[in-house]
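Before we proceed, please read the two lines closing this message. Let me know whether the structure tokens fit the sequence:

…
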Amino acid sequence: MLELILITGMSGSGKSVALRALEDAGYFCVDNLPPELLKSFVELEQRNGAKRVAIAMDVRSATSLPLVPAQLRELQAGSVTVRPLFLDATTETLVRRFSETRRRHPLSHLAPAVEGARDQLRALVDSIELERELLADLREQAHVIDSSVLRPGQLQAYVKSLLAAPLAQLTLVFESFAYKRGIPTDADYVFDVRMLPNPYYEPELRDLTGLDKAVIDYLQADTEVEQMYRHIQGFLDRWLEALARNHRSYVTVAIGCTGGQHRSVYLVERLAAEFGQRWATLKRHREVVY
């Protein structure tokens, strides 16, 4: 059976980085394939005996992108396993990346010519928001990775972790993050745990993380932390089966604290260990440098 990873997403969100990660993992990769050629290309690769293929599409094919969802359904109904992946980032991040590289947005030709810096910025933001609208249907059907604050190495690691996950009906992704760096846009559910006791204010724990035994022991001893864990666990226990019945492929649960180092990391580790016994599970720590 052929496995197809379809990468779509916002311009400047890191699709080329994701494609390189897949190439390193042994996938035959094609960038900017016109949607009209998707089915015939996959059929050709099947005849050639290919097992793993990754294709990147973007808004440069805007007029034919609406064809893609139906094509994916047809491929999935046959002998192709499809994993759609959508790379996203905040508008502020995308504006900064385009400004730093001096690249033109692929939809900039649709905006009227402007001269002033302020008008140029407005035109860029308008192009980005138009792109979001054009890609909304593809985003809805894909697993989303928010690359806003990720280094290229982190993004590659996230993509490779998806490959390691078994092809299950539903995969749970637990992600820790710091509120001071923004809420991940890829989160389906967000739990704020900033009200819990903070190990940062204990001098001997400040430079550790929720992966360290001393922090784990500190948080395990607190009744409020235990109660928060039980509440999140109970919510997921109640609704995961319903999400799976609704044909969800991925559900991302984000746990946030102030610095993304202690409380959120501890809870992600514990929840991933618990639910990993019943569901395909991945975990990410956005702010922790390994």
